[in-house]
Amino acid sequence: MAQTTISIRMDDKLKKDFDKICNELGLSMTTAITMLAKKMTRENRLPFEVSIDPFYSDENIERLKKSIAQMESTGGTIHEVNYSD
What we know:
The chain is mainly α. It has two domains: 12-43, no CATH class; 52-85. The protein is 52% helix and 0% strand. The model has no long low-confidence stretch (mean pLDDT 88).
């Protein structure tokens, strides 16, 4: 079977962590990525769930901004958390 080369960019720390995990599993990064590609093409989907972290929702960001403003206005001495907003 003919081989080809792909090039990807990722954060240096992510690459190091990924390489470490692959080595612990007895895999090279190339083998791990090839496994991912084979599973995706076989199943026509991502082999894991992709979702948005609710922490970054507009509602939560607004709540965090209000909380920060409250802390800044009181010098950080008084801070109430109200989850019903």
